[in-house]
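Dock NAP; give full complex structure.
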Amino acid sequence: MDGNRAVIIVAMNEETGGPRVVLNNGVEIPQVGFGVFQIPEEGAQSAVESALAAGYRHIDTAAAYNNEAGVGAAIKASGIPRDEIFVTTKLRNGNQGTDSVRREYDGSRQALGLDVIDLYLIHWPSPARNLYVDSWKTMEQLYANGQIRAIGVSNFLQPHLDRLLAETDVVPAVNQVEIHPRFQQRDVVAHGRKSGIAEEAYSPLGQGTYLDNPAVTLIADRLGVTPAQVVLRWHLQNGTILIPKSENPERMRTNLDIFGFTLTDADISAIDALESNGRIGGDPMNAEWTQIR
Ligand SMILES: NC(=O)c1ccc[n+]([C@@H]2O[C@H](COP(=O)([O-])OP(=O)(O)OC[C@H]3O[C@@H](n4cnc5c(N)ncnc54)[C@H](OP(=O)(O)O)[C@@H]3O)[C@@H](O)[C@H]2O)c1
């Protein structure tokens, strides 16, 4: 993958959360995070508590996941100092707009029980609504006031990024998009990197749907690791930020245990070759959900 990415390598143990990527404003984000999409509110606290115990120090939620309160309760219960956990949440599509962003941001902050959110994202460009530029301008104000440490976007394709770059002041710190071996979005990634926007891979395991692919299992068998670890390591070596989700404590643990082996160039090429335009989620050009779920 082209483009430079500053990655701070720190020893992996339960207190560090693994390597960190330096975002375009100097803020550091743990390269591997824990995603909580589709974890119901009543299970979110215990899932995030297990994830923190496994060593994750970066949690990815969204207003639309309806589980921010559970995430916040887990952070509080963990006793881990606030500045050691990186928390991302996202603006609900149906609440985009100049004035509603401030209210929505406050709602997320309160549900999470946090004074400051580390990373706040526009969840989808929702182009038919034509409100993402206005929303971004309000987010810029919140950022300037120190209420958010970094602002970014999600599901933005080149036209959406170009418009934001042309009409607003702050370059997004990240663009969180669907990336996995069958859907690598190399054009979106390369375009973002040129402007200093770090890519974050959502559904990094392809939602676990093709981990039995022989290209992956062959490498896993040779290295004595799981197929999921191979796919996650591929993201890591590409310099991508990744946020796998699991509700299974053993998988949470192994999904983070990817720092003790290395894929060869041939392994990387074999996984690169799985690209097949295999999008799983919505198409950002026309996804217009207001609530998601
Ligand atoms: N910005 C967006 O629009 C957007 C969209 C989708 C997702 N996301 C974010 O990205 C995160 C991850 O994406 P995702 O949840 O869609 O997909 P994912 O992380 O690629 O895959 C999760 C699925 O894989 C299974 N799994 C996890 N570890 C496994 C392992 N080691 N072996 C086999 N199966 C395993 C999980 O089941 P178990 O739970 O049973 O382990 C779950 O069914 C989300 O939680 C969310 O934070 C963002």
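Observed: The chain has ten helices and eleven strands.
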